[in-house]
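User: Structure please.
Assistant: Input sequence and predicted structure:
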Amino acid sequence: MAADGLISIKSSFGPEDTMKRLEAEVKARGLTVFAHVDHAAGAAAVGLPLRPTDLLIFGNAKGGTPLMQQAQTIGIDLPLKALVWQDDQGATWLSYNDPAYLAQRHGVGEPAKAAVDAMTTALHAIATKATAP
């Protein structure tokens, strides 16, 4: 079942390589990596199994601030996040929140449309670079 506003792209690479490619592309575009959360390692630390599930939190103030100037509540969904995960068939996926969905969710209006469009374009390019050969 797909979650509202979530974009998922199947990767041509395994989870580890997909995450490495994702992080490299984020940095190559001058974005800041704020955190890396390895959910599977956290699960293993408490003796619970979890397929690879790795979250990267990244962004920059130039991209997110115009949205927060319109609706500060969008700060709950920013900075941007991308999840690299492996399904029960062994396929690797990269998922991220659609910026247009987030803007609509928080009532961000027309003045921030350029920022939303730029975020959408950048995330699509980053995700494609991380998942495609």
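Strands lie at 6-10, 32-38, 53-59, 80-86, 92-97.
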